[in-house]
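User: My notes are a mess, but here's the protein and thiamine diphosphate's SMILES. Can you give me a structure?
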Amino acid sequence: MAEKKVYEKTLGVMPDVISGFCPGCMHGTVHKLVGEVVQELGMLDKLVRVEGVGCCGLGQQFVSHDVIIAAHGRACAVATGVKRCSPESLVYTYQGDGDLASIGLDETVSAANRGENFTVIFINNGIYGMTGGQMAPTTLIGMKATTAPFGRKVEEHGYPMHVCELLSQLKTPQFLVRTAVDTPQNVIKTRKYIKQAFQNQIDGKGFSLVEVVTSCPTNWGYTAKEALTFLREKMFEEFPLGVYRDKDKEEA
Ligand SMILES: Cc1ncc(C[n+]2csc(CCOP(=O)(O)OP(=O)(O)O)c2C)c(N)n1
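Assistant: No problem, the inputs look usable. Here's the predicted complex:
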């Protein structure tokens, strides 16, 4: 039977290597969207990625633009330095929930509050992925983690943290959105949001954050298909998708 090509990587955006991510992981989709959008904006040669530690920190193997790996949680602080020293660069951080909302929460809130002019891509998979499934600030109530083997309990661990809602209490951020890439429609929406977040930076509007609620089949203990069901039934219930702040619309 003749081979039929069903997928091709966008030239110049991603290197021609086999993805090292687990089956059902959504990092690859988000990497592709970032690259394609910035290519469309004609800024690929100016793009600098500051990545957090974790599976998010594997990106340097799978993207074709410049990458700085920040110490765990410090991506927003490093991105602040890069963007302030090199304002012509298009800078984004790429961070997991452990990185952005736990060890790096101060850096995230402070950068958002200062209105730093860069873009944040926040991958919320409800767990510490790379290190083997420890509880993250975004782990759901009752969800098992290696550090919460009987499931997250409110009385011991508090409620899941909602980053878009938290940051929307600040006056400064320009754009805060929570989205997903589980269906073609959501991929199209996420593409639009990522493009807006980068366009905001090009226009000097300040801090934009795109939270992508994703699955981690390996550490959730599900198959890729089961993880999709969990994502839609449980994760989206706790983390409603939508625009939490768009200053352009507020001012219009
Ligand atoms: C200062 C410091 N503390 C702890 C670690 C160990 N560590 C590496 S990755 C990681 C968790 C990352 O989880 P998350 O940010 O959710 O990213 P994911 O792997 O899910 O993409 C931890 C705790 C480290 N590298 N540095």
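The pocket of thiamine diphosphate is lined by residues 52-56, 72, 96-99, 123, 125, 128-131, 136 (CB under 6 Å).
User: Great, I'll file this with my notes.
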